[in-house]
Write a structure and sequence with these properties.
By secondary structure, the protein is mostly helical. The protein has a domain of 32 residues. Helices cover 42% and strands 0% of the residues. α1 crosses α2. It is elongated, with a radius of gyration of 17 Å. The model has no long low-confidence stretch (mean pLDDT 89).
Length: 67
């Protein structure tokens, strides 16, 4: 079962959003993923360690044996 993410509206200064978009493009990430990385880095600098979620499983699901 996929882990759900918390959705919420966020208002940003257009210049700040543009800077985040540039960073995201350099790292081949979405703006949302880049914001998550930046927030985790900022929290870590303050001594708050947030565990990373398990990455999504890729590929085909394993075959089930026929009974």
């Amino acid at each position: 079962m996929p882990r759900e993410k918390k959705a919420f509206p966020l208002r940003l200064d257009p210049a700040l959003h543009a800077a985040i978009e540039r960073l995201a493009a350099q790292d081949l990430r979405s703006v949302n993923a880049e914001l998550e990385v930046l927030l985790r880095e900022a929290l870590q600098r303050r001594g708050v360690n947030v565990p990373r979620p398990d990455p999504p499983r890729r590929g085909r699901p394993p075959k089930k044996d026929k009974e």
